[in-house]
Design goal:
By secondary structure, this protein is of the alpha/beta class. It is about 35% helix and about 25% strand.
Length: about 450
Amino acid sequence: MSKSIKLAILGLGTVGTGVVNLINDNLDELKRRSGCDIMISMVGTRRQRDDIDPMITQSDDLMAIATSDDVDIVIEVIGGTTFAKDVITAAITHGKHVVTANKALLAEHGNEIFALAEQHKVHVAYEAAVAGGIPIIKVMREALAANKVNWLAGIINGTGNFIMTEMRDKGRPFADVLAEAQALGYAEADPTFDVEGIDAAHKLALLASIAFGIPLQFDKVYCEGIRDITLQDVNYAEELGYRIKHVGFAVRHQSDSGDDNDTANGIELRVHPTLIPEDKLLANVNGVKNAVLVDSHPLGQTLYYGDGAGAGATASAVMADVMDLVRVLCTNEKGHHVPHLAFVPEELSDTPILSAAQMTTGYYLRVHAHDNPGVLADITRILSEAGINIDAILQKPAHKAGQVPVIILTLPVVESQMNSAIAKIEALDTITDKVVRIRLDELA
């Protein structure tokens, strides 16, 4: 007789309902793959649902469900960082394994939660917290376990990617596309987390910890949104052979000296709009799709692409974690699991996170100047004196009372050097507006 594993689902919104439907649709397949009977014993919901099997207990007391003796695995899909933290903590202290899709909670409180799980010899699984149905957590923790990750770059927020795609493909302004994204359910009524990059920063914090074996440090992720991206810049970038995407980067810098105290050592954690060459795979990830590009040794570059959100994609990721835990429970190997952040806890590194001023990228600069002789020479002189190499210049015809747009692409430079150069350019009498800067990455 096969063993029965009992699940509790906290939250019956889009994702929770998707999990219920997936289990109902694939129940026989799940048993064949795990060797166990998997059943939902309890669900936490504010209101009674007629479409739920009457044999399943429904309750609005989520804390009681999370600590019930009739539950082996708690699936948390309620979101938020307050009550969700309390209920997950209670489940862990009562010896329950936890599966969660809550990237904000883990990015901000994951160090504490994972330590508690280690103490109580249970596991917190979170594949669904990053990039929806793309199995990037499992890939990073397991498939790439023998590799040294050099850097990763990810389009990890579908709303932002939808907006940037529509702006480029259809020439629509930001505000117009955002309104459609909200109407389609891609963006919330308050879209701040999506368009300001906070959602992507939560996910990047998790990916970086797994990639480099560092504690979660969401508060050190540089974060810049897409509200200020204009059609003008989208079109100029296209003319120069680039596309603007909202990308999260985690980059390891290590000096040749091998000295851990060398100032060149550190990790960049940054989320911002980025010019990417139009022929790169990441530049061609469109709509609400997600993708993560990982550069590691010895494997090289690998790309992971798919649906980053939605009931089916997220439920698939949730159930992948459930299946891993079911296999552990069915074989009674409760103490054996892949470390939460890929590295054993005592081996997590204190590698410093570089400040924004220490980051190194290429730049797209749009400068508006009076159409006077010598303006371009002054700009290029300032950049040269700052040690900034120019890769391309595009000067457009004069418009708007004789103003000339000058677009400059630079090779990679430390941000502090660029800050100094921009300040000097803006101080010129011939410059009529603030310099627009967007970072640029060749993904080489």
